[in-house]
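Backbone shapes recur. Consider a single case.
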Amino acid sequence: MTVDGTALITGASAGIGRALATEFAANGHDVALVARRETELLELANRLEDDHGVRAHAIDMDLASVDAPNELYETTEARDIQVDVLVNNVGIGTQGAFVENDLGRELDQMQLNVVTPTQLTHRYGGDMADRGHGGVLNVASTAAWFPGPFMAIYYASKAYMKNFSEGIAEELRPEGVDVTVLCPGPVDTEFQERADNEDTPLGSGEMQDVETVARAGYEGLQDGDTVVVTGWKYRLLTKVSNVLPNRLTRKSARDLNTAE
């Protein structure tokens, strides 16, 4: 089933979110762009309208706030924006020992990576089910297959998003709503700098191209794929993860996330 209509993309001002916004607009979708950085959002909205002839709405909002999901829903209602595709891209990571990291930052990570996308999916996904048509694209990671010492909350949050997405995909498919979870490996964005893991093997290693990742996510949603893993190396890694000893996967992740 082809998923069309207006796409709301969270975390749209940079990285995968920006690339996904461009991908949707290039394929004729109007877009609603959500992020904290108003200047970057307006610049992107203007460019997408000029380049692709679509309508681009800019909504500057801090989605780490516990009230943000309801405020965003009310904002789109007030602006008469019908969300036909929800793209839950917003998220952050934190590197370091969990008990030594700032707890407020960790709770923000749980809000952004888990709670906010769950609430948005409940509101907008419910509307789509009522209309009998729509799509949800959740951005997770290949980290979803592994425990993550020194990035414990991030890995756990991505495992949640993968399992959540697969579960609701089965619930919503009969209602005419497709759900896809995009699981890339490390991607060349500002994520590494913001997560403060640039001096780890994972944060300083080989990166995937952000436009290629965004295109794979868009095409996966349009093709009705539930799980999209980008890159043959990462597809192989996720396949063998189930047969590797848990102790080995924990140690490997620890080594990848430990500063050199």
In short: The beta strands are 7-10, 31-35, 56-60, 85-88, 134-139, 177-183, 227-229.
